[in-house]
Model the fold of this input.
Amino acid sequence: MPLDSATVAALAEQLESCQLRARDTVKITDAHPGMTLADAYAVQDAILARKRDRGTRVVGWKAGLTSPGKMKQMGVSEPCFGFLVDEFVVPDGGDVPMADLIHPKVEPEICFVLKRALKGPGCHIGAVLAATDFVLPGIEVIDSRYRDFKFDLASVIADNTSAARFVVGGRAVAPDALDLRTIGVVLEKNGKPVAMGAGAAVLGHPAAAVAMLANHLGARGQELPAGALVLSGGVTEAVAVEAGDQVCLRVQGLGSVAVQFR
Ligand code: OOG
Ligand code: MG
Done:
């Protein structure tokens, strides 16, 4: 790890205060071009430690950059993983104030809730489906803290993979009642479809993203606990939103979930 612990702490402070104050910053690899992915996850961990010290709870995990639409849009071709905390939760149909965010975008996601813990290494789609209580649709609101939403893999990992808000809702369905590869996903903005795809866009099967996350955590001595919520990654490219926009996600067999920006 080329970054020393004081630098990791300073970068965590910088990125978290950008998140809390809705300010952007230059990407951190401009000043630290040699930083590794281990450094980047160390910065992300330090952001989480700051939040935990204030009593914030982890409510889930996310995989990102898991579909061709997302990888192409962001110019990053490897998945990344982040955490979700209570301050990111928006109720289904709820409002998100634009003043709290920098330049938000929305993504259609297939979300998993586990009934049993999942621990890598060696976690696979079968293990994920066996451990899944139900899946449900979710809209992730991402908000990169980097200027113009431009970053590389290390920068975005340090920035907790642009996590900002998320909404889950719709119908909770057991995973064996669906073929998660072929379910259709339609994202609407102000009543018009703006992005659409099928579950297989996420690494061939959305459960593969959950397995990858469990293996990533396992390599670091951690696991996904029973009850964990996991966002498996945007099925399509992300769509920018502005004040007044209403967003609705419809997922075949899973109903719909909505959020609005004001
Ligand atoms: C990084 C986060 C990506 C997803 O679902 O692909 C992500 C970004 O694109 O800002 O959450
Ligand atoms: Mg996402």
Notes: The chain has one domain: 5-261. The chain has a mean pLDDT of 98. The radius of gyration is 17 Å.
